[in-house]
Amino acid sequence: MSRVYNFSPGPAALPLPVLEQARAELLNWQGRGLSVMECSHRGRPFAELAEQSERDLRALLSIPDDYAVLFMQGGATLQFAAIPMTLARPGQSVDYLITEHWGKKAASEAARLRPLRVVADGAALGYRSVPAPQEWDAGADAAYLHYTANETLHGLEIDPPPDADYAPLVCDMSSTLLSRPVPVERFGLIYACAQKNIGPAGVTVVIISPDLLRRVPEDTPLALNYRKIAVAGSMLNTPATFPWYVASLVFRWVAAQGGVQALAERNRRKAQLLYDYIDGSDFYANRVDCRWRSWMNVPFTLADPALEARFLEMSERQGLHGLKGHRAVGGMRASIYNAMPEAGVRALVSFMKEFERAA
Fold it and tell me: Last residue of a domain, which of 193, 222, 256?
């Protein structure tokens, strides 16, 4: 069976060796005669997998020893509510930097729970750039400053993290984590849903500093109580065992590639190859300011929007899957996460050249 190059934004492509290992072990994990999905999460075999996966992730990201690493459920959307509920006191303001769709979603949920201050919103810039820090309306009384590292719809990415000495940084890294090195010690909390670079949908990684962990009120509902989840090793309730297992395989795969630094170099090359072709063409365009262009999601438009349906139909025939842009912005979007090989990006550029010549 031939596989396509999967440019979907999420659930996204998984490394082929990970899929092959999961397939090989599906019915008989560790020679136990049953699937990992059928194993008790309380049993020693799964506990060892969980402990090893945490050690592997800590090593990949150089996570400080005193930070907690949690494997939660509910996706990033649950974190939109959990973060303001647990890290800010009732009545205490929370600061949000809005750089497009997911930043808006996070801010909207936070506003239900705590006084919200938007320190800056890139709407006036068409979400093609980030407002300069000197223009931000930051508040010294804020419980934290939240931002989205990578906006998948518009293809805008913030790296390195902004300077915010007045409040702990909280970051949605759903489509950034594991794609490059991260200075974890600069953050109070990092969260990332799995279905970009970590694994299949169903598990969410949360990395939280000891200072913020101490803020969590004792009466916080169990499913949101970071401190109690940390004490229980992310097993206050039955975790998403299969996604966690696949994530553990992904962590090993990342290490085998040379770690996040090696993947960062690969991701930079992939993105540059695609952006260079788009910038050199009068037929395709990407409007994001070069300083903020995403390595993970490359949106682009065609000179004639009437050709979009044909572009998508022909690209699918060529084994290039998932290039349709989000309905909110239109156009095309190539999501080139860790699992996308350079050969896939070269195949896309080759197709784009042929389509341009034939149009």
Answer: 256
From residue 297, alpha-carbon distances to 47, 279, 339 in Å are 35, 16, 13
Whole-model pTM over 0.90 = yes
In which order are the strands placed within the sheet that holds 284-285?
A: 284-285, 297-302, 332-335
Whether residue 310 sits in one domain with residue 238: no
- Cα–Cα distance, 301 to 329 (Å, whole number): 10
Q: Counting Cβ atoms within 10 Å, is residue 132 exposed (0-12), middle (13-18) or buried (19+)?
A: exposed
Phi-psi region of 3 (alpha: psi -120 to 50; beta: other; left: phi over 0): beta
Q: Which residue has the tokens 């996040």?
A: 260
Question: What are 327's two structure tokens?
Answer: 């309905």
How many of the other CB atoms lie within 10 Å of CB of 118?
A: 16
Q: How many domains does the chain have?
A: 2
Q: Which residue range is the domain that position 73 belongs to?
A: 17-256
Catalytic residues: 102, 172, 196
User: What CATH number does the domain containing 111 carry?
Assistant: 3.40.640.10
* Residue 169: closest CA among 152, 150, 151, 191: 191
List all residues 6 or more positions away from 40 whose beta carbon is below 8 Å from its beta carbon: 46
Cα separation values, 303 from 48, 72, 228, 273, 287, Å: 54, 43, 54, 20, 13
Whether residues 275 and 343 share a domain: the answer is yes
pLDDT tens across 35-88, in order?
999 999 999 999 999 999 999 999 999 999 999 999 999 999 999 999 999 999
